[in-house]
Each structure stands twice: as C-alpha cells, then as structure tokens.
Amino acid sequence: MSKEKEKENWSDKEYVLDRVKNDGRALQYASEELRANKEIVLAAIKKAEYPGWALKYASEELRANKEILLEAVKNDGEALNFASEELRANKEIVLAAVNVNGDVLEYASKELQADKEVVLCAIKECGYALNFASEEFQADKDIVMMAISTYVPAIDCASEELRRDKEIIQKIITILKSYTHKELAEDEYLYTFLLNEFFSDIVGEFWGDKEIVLDLTKICSVAILCVSKELQLDTDVIFSAMDTYVIDREYHSTDVYLSFDGGELSNNKEFVLKAVARDGMYLDYASMEFLEDKEVVLAAVKNNGLALQFASEELRADPEIINAAVKNYPEAIHFKLESKKGITKKGIYETIDNAYNSFKNDNPVLELVCDKNTMKIWYDFMTWFYVNDDIQKEEFEFNGQCSLGDSDIELVISPLMQCAMDESAAWWNKYLMTSHYCTAYREFKESCFFCFGDGCEHCDYEGFDEQLCEANVHRIFREIRDSIDTSSFKELSKIKI
User: Fold this and answer.
1) pLDDT tens digits, residue range 39-68?
2) Domain range holding 305?
3) Is the pTM here over 0.85, yes or no?
4) Residues 349, 477: one domain?
5) Residue 158 domain flag
6) Which residues have C-beta within 8 Å of that of residue 380, sequence separation ≥ 6?
C-alpha cells in the first residue's frame, strides 16, 4: 500500500472506526479531523487496554469533554493525566479516577488534593497517593495510618513529626510481622525500604527502645546492626536476632554475627553456650579457646553438625563429638580430623616451603645478612601472607602498605618484603585449587567412616569438593594464620640487601 493510500485510509471514518474497535491505540494514526470525532474517540477508549493511551491522542476539545473523560477514567485512572485543567478540578471525574488508580491524585487540581473525600478514596486504593495529598493530610495521623495500611513505604510521604511517631512505627512493625521471611525478601521494593529508609532513617531514636528492637529483630536479623550501643550487649536482643538469622540468612548476604561484640561476648562461655545451642555455626565466631572446649563444641554440633569444621583438631577426632555431628548432619563426617596423616595441612606447608626456597634462591645474600631467628620471621611472614584470606591474591597488586588482617599493625613494605609476598602469591595462585582442594577431597574420602576411601554417597557426590573441601582448606588456613606471631614483622622492613 502506498503512503498516499495509507494516509487516505486514516482520513476515512469507516476505516478508522473499524481499526480502533480492534485496538484503541490505532487512534494515534487517525487524521486530526477524526481525532476530534466523538464517536471514534469513544470507540477507541472502550477498546483500548489502557484507555488513557487512546485519550492521549484525542483532540484537545474531546479531552475536555466530561462524558469522554468519565468513560476513560472508570477503567484507567491514568487517563486523568490527559484531561483538561478544568476536568482535573472536577470532583466527580477525579473520584472516579482515584477509585481505580489512587496515585493519579498527582494529576488532580490542588483544591482536590486538599479534599478529604478525594484523598481518602485515593489512599484507600493506593497508600502512596499520600505523596500527592496536601501537607495538611500528610500531617493527619489517621490518614497516614490508613495510607501505611495499604502501602507501608507511604510513611516516607508523611510529615517529619509523624515519621517519628511511635504509634505509627509500631503500626508498621505489626504489618511487617504479618509477612513470612520469604515473602518479605521476595518483595524487593518493601525489603529495600525496610533496610534503607525504615532502618536507617525512620526508626531513629527508637533503636534504644528494647520493645521495638525485639520486634524488629524478629522481622529481620539485620536490625541488630542498627541497635543502640546499650542493646548491642543485651542477650535478649542478640538471641532474638540470632533466632531470626537462622531462618532468613538464605535471603540476604549480610553476616549479622559480625556485629556481635568480639571481645565481651565471644569470650563469655555462658553466652557462647547459649549461642551455639541456637545456631551451631556461631562456633566460627567464638574465641579460639572455645574451639577446644568439648562442652561448647558438643552443644554446637548437636545443633548443626557442620559446626564440626570449626572445632580444634583434637575434638574433630573425638568419637562422641563426631557421632553427635554426624547424627545431626551425616555429611559432617567429612570434617572429622583430616585422617591422622594430616595430608592437607602438610601439603600447604610443603607449598609454603617451596615459595620460601624460591625467595631465598632469588636473594642468595639474604642468609648472609640475616640470622636464623630473622630467617624464621621471613618464613612466618610468607606463611602468614599465603594463608591470609583477607588479602585477595588472584590479582595481587600491592601499594606499599599492609594491614595485618584484624590487627592494628600497619607495615611499610620494603622491596624485599614485596618480593617475598609476590612469591607467596604466585605459589598460592598455582596450588590453591589444583592441589590443596584436591588433597582435602582425597583426605576426606580416605577418612570416610562409611566406605574408607572406596567412594560412597557420603563422600562422592556432585559439588562435594566445592562445598566442603574448600571450607576445610580455609579453616586450616585460619588455624595456621592465628598461630603466627606478627609483632616482629616490622623488623623485616629495615632489612636491605
């Protein structure tokens, strides 16, 4: 069809009428004259999936026609956006529109945005309509309560005073408690509002209110990150967050246990015992002394057998603890003492020895200027760097200064120390996955109580060495790192050859 013929068709009333009856959006192609035809525009509005789209292309005269507007807004409140200024101030039309789409209160006249009947109708359909109501209604407690009942984030639209109102905050908490953890996490907008606006801005001074904080930690464990300093040490609050974290940690990546006081609480046996009884995996955050405490470890593995991986080597060889762990979680068998041969740790040290020897070969004068004690410090430094998971060695680049993990020690790195770290990083990149993970896998298989290395469903399934062997290697890394005295590393920066 030629362009001339097509243009001629869109000026033909019967042709256009037929097209808009099939798809109201076709009105956009009609001639200017036919866009001003009431019969055609009404037909388009009635057939359009979203009548507002059809009204958008109607003539200015018809967009000011009350009959046309009422027909459009009764099915699509958004059509109010294309109404004339006069009709945006028509209460009958605006009520019809907000009854369908409450947030189109945005397009109503200022007078109607201050009309209580209109505002109530709008927020009943959509709480966010509060954002377009007059300031008077944004400061009206009853209206704000109604708005958050239909849309919790509408609290952002309330007056500053009501955003800090305890009764309103408790109302929001009551609504949030009606969601399951899964439902809350899957509602991306609401979950983002909870973690950002609500936790960081709205709760404010009430982070020191124990009643409110307990409710919030039951809704989302991340709340523990925001509580007042006084409540950070309150065991009721901590255990409430811990109980919730056991449920909702699969829905978010925030590690709330990192917020627990690392000194006072992780060193308190009474607290640690209660904590691991709730979640055995908390053993990973307890002080090192408790990894050797049979009572603590037994309580942890009875709750979660996988906590066995954090226990000391002695306790990972203890039959009572192994049996309790395996009873709770059969695959925990892989974390029992890495066969008495300890081949995984042995392999790690062999690789470090190779890195150390390469470093000495590259710097033959080193042993002439350093005594045995200093050479031991060099070995410890390379070992510490090799097993330190806090330093990303895959693409290792150093900027001349080093922070030693969780300690406060800062080092100025000399060229010689840089050379030692480069050597450690090179061997780490080469052997972490190709050797240490594979060795750990072989070691687990050899120590399996069920098949003794022949392979079975407990030690030979897809994903095994990714899920368990990697964790075991990094556990050994942590044991080695924590055994190293880093206080003498500063002496190395003074050595020049």
Assistant:
1) 888 888 887 777 777 788 888 898 888 998
2) 269-335
3) no
4) yes
5) no
6) 484, 485, 486, 488, 489
